[in-house]
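Protein Record: Sequence and Backbone Structure Tokens
======================================================
Tokens: labelled as protein backbone structure tokens, with as many entries as the chain has residues.
Question of interest: how does this chain fold, as expressed in backbone structure tokens?

___
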Amino acid sequence: MMSQRERDIRFMICNGLRLRTSGREREASSPSSSASTCSYSSFIMDPKVVENIYLLVIVTLISILQNVFFAQKVERECKCHHSHTSAFERVSCANRNCMDAYPTFLAVMWCAGLCLSQAPAAFAGIIYLLVRQKYFVGYLGQTSQSTPGYLFGKRIISFLFLMCVVGIFNYLLARYYGNDYKDYVETITKAASALLLIP
């Protein structure tokens, strides 16, 4: 049995209304009668929103699969060798290094995609995942073989961070001065993202 407060909140969520802090002020006239008719279809994401983030979602899902691959590699090495062998230490260290940089990568990729443009951000994300794979495999050999992948990954993170800063700066210009350069910046960013392919 739902309380009156729960019915009010559900009604306001279903109708897209802002919940006020006092709780006593209601923006709707009859929440109790309409709350029962609220369907879960109102919680489905707007197609326009999905259109602006679907590439970022795809890259995120691919990165999760890559994390699963790394974890399985560590588990396989642990079962095949003792936990104190050099092969296991290298795999474990490579996995730990990749996971340390993972939250930063996700944060800057999503911020760049939302603040500026999702296509170059997702492209840079795919390149980063390829570089991360190269780093992981290189670390399994000699540690020096992983250095190019590490440096290339830093360059991609820097590019995504720069996209975030430019996107926020463009938003502030558009909001306070009425100058929106997003179309120009997106064109430049798409061209610049191709430069990430240069080793």
In short: The chain has two domains: 4-43, 47-197. The chain has a mean pLDDT of 78. Residues 61 and 73 are 19 Å apart (CA to CA).
